[in-house]
Amino acid sequence: MVKKYVENRVQLVKFNLIGAIANIAAGLVSSFLLLIMGILILLMFSIAMAFWFASFFESEVIGFALMGLVYAILLVIYAVFAKDKVELSIKDKIVAEALSDEDEFNESVDYE
Asked: What DSSP line would sit under 58-81, residue for residue?
């Protein structure tokens, strides 16, 4: 009886681990694809804006340099004001996901 319980418990842990790994893998792949598409969209708009600046100032060097300056300013703003908040938000989401998996595990176990 105890041996069967231990075997079932080990099997349940394996299934829960496989489910957690599958959820993480699916989330990573989905996030990676969204990131790639977002980068490509940002790249296209950045090039378009750089050429617009270039036509406005009649110099491609100035146009692309201004676009670089825009990104440098955004980087400084992010580093100063938003970096800690973004990191905290990511950590909170990871912990919440881990705890929800643990809650699902505890609900699936019958202690009788």
From this structure: T-HHHHHHHHHHHHHHHHHHIIII
Best CA proximity match to 50, nearest among 33, 69, 31: 69
* Residues 6 or more apart in contact with residue 62 via CB below 8 angstroms: 53, 54
pTM: 0.64
Q: Count up the domains in the chain and report the number.
A: 1
CA trace torsion 31, 32, 33, 35 (10° rounding): 80
Residue 13 has pLDDT above 60, yes or no: yes
Residue 11: C-alpha distances to residues 15, 18, 32 (Å): 6, 11, 31
What domain range is 15 assigned to?
2-108
